[in-house]
Amino acid sequence: KDGAMESIDNLLRDCPERLTPAEAAVVLGKSRQSISNWLNREDHPLPGVRIGGHWMILTSELRAWLTEGHN
């Protein structure tokens, strides 16, 4: 693995299968607003699912999104 992919794997290693935006913010060291902006942007949004008005982010999709360099 290259260094970037290894760093992403280390960052997400102990994460549950699904994250709330607040949990993703803590894991990534970003603000909750940054995660919200990523979820709602038009070009290459952070993949998430809205369930009952609340966002859920699959850790596997977050890993792929970060690997592709969309953050």
Write the layout of secondary structure elements.
Layout: H1 3-12, E1 18-19, H2 21-28, H3 32-40, E2 49-51, E3 54-58, H4 59-67
Antiparallel strand pairs: 1-3, 2-3
Helix pairs in contact: 1-4, 2-3
Q: Write the H/E string, N to C.
A: HEHHEEH
Number of helices: 4
Radius of gyration, CA atoms, in whole angstroms: 12 Å
Outline type = globular
**Estimated structural class:** alpha+beta
The counted number of beta strands is 3
Mean pLDDT: 92
pLDDT < 50 stretches: none
Strand content: 5-15%
Biggest β-sheet strands, sense, barrel: 3 strands, antiparallel
Helix percent reads 40-55%
Task: Going across the biggest sheet, name each strand in turn.
Answer: 1-3-2
**N-C termini distance:** 20 Å
